[in-house]
Amino acid sequence: xxxxxxxxxxxxxxxxxxxxxxxxxxxxxxxxxxxxxxxxxxxxxxxxxxxxxxxxxxxxxxxxxxxxxxxxxxxxxxxxxxxxxxxxxxxxxxxxxxxxxxxxxxxxxxxxxxxxxxxxxxxxxxxxxxxxxxxxxxxxxxxxxxxxxxxxxxxxxxxxxxxxxxxxxxxxxxxxxxxxxxxxxxxxxxxxxxxxxxxxxxxxxxxxxxxxxxxxxxxxxxxxxxxxxxxxxxxxxxxxxxxxxxxxxxxxxxxxxxxxxxxxxxxxxxxxxxxxxxxxxxxxxxxxxxxxxxxxxxxxxxxxxxxxxxxxxxxxxxxxxxxxxxxxx
Length: 329
Known about the structure:
The protein is an alpha/beta fold. The protein has eleven helices and 13 strands. 35% of the residues lie in helices and 29% in strands.
């Protein structure tokens, strides 16, 4: 497959002036200006193939948004090589932005005082979208994102969820090859989040639009991405399959068993029983020691069962464990 993003040894250093307090500090600030170096992104290397949907995650201040700003041409790196869709983003801005879409969850790309539809009409002219293509895309996204209830409303009067849906429509009107999403579900309720996720998933699967997604909501990653990049303190800690991450660091899986009758004692299974409640038992087991099907087979041979379900470790706990125990360093 073709690579649409190639990043090699990407680095961004910010220099901040030290500020001293008090009268003496004020004099010192006037006489000498000392600065400190903040390495927001430090020697990061990765590549993304066309059509992938990749999650880019990390704690606050890890370097996620700084990376996105360099990939979209908003910031110039301090070092390293970046090629996005055949362009060096900050050198060829006009040509480059014609083939990407960007959505920042905490700020809008639409005109604040204009109705949504007028903002979208303006974008048609800015991106020079042919009328037929514009109408077809607008009609499609109006349905997918349920825009009709607020399409004539000024952007400033929209709820956060409505604004996010309008921003997603705006970002996709010109059929970009690549979509950058920075915290697209931040501050949204459960229903709004699910609507946004369904749209992103549909766009990725139906048009093969490449998506790079930064988020603090790990449910976004779990539902949308097969691959994940983890960054912390500017360093890339992990680049690989989400499933592989869970297998390596996720801890124990759980098997929830509803027995057809009451069994006072459950034994000979070789796993940990972490909960008993009437005819229900919750068993914890390690995936590298026994598979779910093997454990279910053991139980079915010894006991009458009414229902079974397997619960995977929550990704939040997996990521928290990696950060707290520094498992990837």
